Fold C-type lectin domain-containing protein.
Amino acid sequence: MIQNKIQLVVFLAGILSKASCDLYRIVLIKEPKTWTEAQSYCREKYMDLATVQSDEDRAKLKEAANAVNFQSVAWIGFYRFVWGWSYQNTPISYEKWKPLEPDLSNTNEACGFVNQLGKWADRLCTELDYFFCQTDRQDTLQDKFKYIGTKLNWHDAQIHCRTHYVDLATITDDTENTFLANLLFNTGSYNSWIGLYKNQLGSEDCVTASTEVLMGDDSCLTPLPFYCRENRKIQRVRFTVKSHGHLDESAVMEAIEKKMKQILSDQDMEITSSIKWGVQPDGKIFQQQKTQENTENKRC
């Protein structure tokens, strides 16, 4: 219990918006999982699968592996798909996938469609839907693309387009993608097949990293350990404490920590948050600052 009169000159409710810095670490999970399972685990427990894009990332990944004496390969957050266009098997140079697409969890979804929001996704090629054909006319987008209002599966739609036009539509930039999305909206249709497909002769590979941060690939269905990325935030707060007489540091710290934990709890941060005190050179937490009082006699 605090015996002396103490005033905390700080607005505790607002401290979490004060000076802060963002940090991150990479964590190795040794329990083998497929790439998709690893991604789901990291997103639930941490932030996401780790990516390696800088020297700092490489150092943190090696640190995570060395911490548990890990000497093998593990999943990271890169993947490679063999996706292309039906027309002349053209490689993809422009893409507009929906979040979490293409769907790694279902390797049978090998054909792509566009929706009226201009986003792409994959689905079973046997499903029925409207489709866009590409013609041999390039004067305007209206001439280049033809909307077919008959529902066919992807392969039958491809045959129709190759028989009557050139092929299923190939999208090469934002202008073409937006045009097709608007056309879908105007026709009242939500999805439409385009010429996007996954090469069944290729492979669906996800990326691994060794302890020396050398990249490799493997089937996404292979169970492997994996690296997760965890973001952490450090926020520094300075308190001013006014006390008349001796200051009981432990009592003040206890009162502040109690209030801080309440604030963290209100912000759903109580599980992953901790409080550390900065220690002064003299071993104390709080540094005394003397104030000069005016001792002159006041005039009436």
Summary: The helical segments are 35-45, 55-67, 141-144, 154-164, 174-187, 249-266.
